[in-house]
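Notes from hallway chat w/ T.B., transcribed later so I don't forget. T.B. wanted the structure written out for a chain they're using in a teaching module, and asked if we could keep both sequence and structure tokens in one place. Agreed to drop them here.
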Amino acid sequence: MNKQIFGAQLSLRCCGTTAPEQTAGPCWQLYVAMTGLVSEWPTFTWPTSTEVPSVGARKAALANLGFTLAEGAEWEWLESTGPDYHSHPARVLLVGSVKVRPHPLWDLLVSTGKVRSLEGGTE
């Protein structure tokens, strides 16, 4: 089993996003920080909504990306204000983070061609 630990982060994109798919308004986006280009990090975007995704929805999104929570990991939350260069008025931003590891079945799924390797191997 792969024992690598990565950091996942969840944040509300107030103006929507263009990657991996375009949204017209605010949406929550979860990504797993890895080596390589940020544009290649595993990312999950919920439909347009400001409602924080439930614990179950976050777990399902991580599984969809091939990850699960690391042993003993719990979501941590940080509040901050938006950057000065942002065109919206200052508001509180909520960012969640958690330690994750590749799903135990990930290597099996990649080797059987059921999913694409995070390193870009199997399609």
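Follow-up for T.B.: The radius of gyration is 15 Å. Might be a good example for the class.
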